[in-house]
Amino acid sequence: MDAAQALADLTEISSQIEAAVLFDASGAIDGSTLADADSTSALATAAAELLDRAAAFRTAGVEVTQLEVSTHEGSVFVVADGPRRIAATTRAEPTVGLVFYDLKSCLRGASAAEPAKSRRRRRTNGEAADGEA
Amino acid sequence: MKRKFLTLLGLAAGVFAGGALYRRATGRRRERADVYFDDGSMVSFVDDSPEAEALLDVARAALAAVRP
Q: Would you say A19 and A106 are in contact if contact means Cβ atoms under 8 Å apart?
C-alpha cells in the first residue's frame, strides 16, 4: 500500500480527520489529503515544530512518539514511528484514542510497501545464491 | 430540629452538585497539549502553562493553514 492509498483509506474510515500529511524526519512530504501544496507544507512544518518543541520538555534520549494539541477550534495530532511521521487535523473534541489508532494504522500501511519490496528482493537473491551453490 | 437541619444540608449539597454538573456540561473545555514519549510516559499541559502555549500557538497556525 502506498502513501496515497493509505491516506485515502484513512479519510474513508475516519470522519473526524479533516486533513492529514505523511512526511519524514527530513521534512520530505510522502503524501497528503490536501490539494494545496502550501497547506500541506504548512501542516508538515507545524507538525515537525510541535515534535521539536515537545521533545524539549524532556531530557535528551527520550523521544516523542505522539502528541495531541487540543484547541477550541480543533485538534492537531502528530504520530512518529522512527523517521516516519503523520500529522492530522480534526474538529474540536475528537475521539482521541480512535484518531491515534487510525493514524498509526495509516502510518503502518504507508510504510508496509517498502519493506515488502525489500524482503522480496532479498529472497530472490537468496534463491539465486542457493541455485548457484 | 436535627431532621430539618439534615434536610437543608441535603438540599444544599444537591444544589451544589447540580451546579457543578451543569457547569461541567455546558462549560468550554480547556485547551491542552498531551505529549507521549517512547519510555511510556505522558504529560499533559493545560492552557495557562507556558509549555502548552508554546504548542498551542503552533497548532492554531496549523489549523488556520489547512482550513479555507
A: no
Output the pLDDT for position A127: 45
ipTM: 0.80
Question: Residue B50: pLDDT above 50?
Answer: yes
B26-30, long-range: CB < 8 A, 24+ apart: B28/A72, B29/A70, B29/A72, B29/A93
Interface of A with B in 13-72 (CB under 8 A): 18-19, 34, 38-39, 42-43, 46-47, 49-50, 53-54, 57-58, 62-72
In this prediction the pTM is 0.78
CA dist B61 to A132, B36, B52, Å?
59, 22, 14
3-class secondary-structure state, position A120 = helix
Distance, CA of B34 to CA of B13 (rounded, Å): 34
Q: Tens digits of per-residue pLDDT, A56-80? A: 998 878 999 999 999 999 999 999 9
The count of structural domains within chain B is 2
Tell me the residue range of the domain where B58 lies.
31-68
Q: Which CATH class name applies to A3-128?
A: alpha beta
Give the CA angle between residues A60, A61, A65 to the nearest 5°. Answer: 105
Query: Which of A49-53, A95-99, A127-131, B11-15 comes out lowest in average pLDDT?
Result: A127-131
Task: Assess whether B67 and B46 both reside in one domain.
Answer: yes
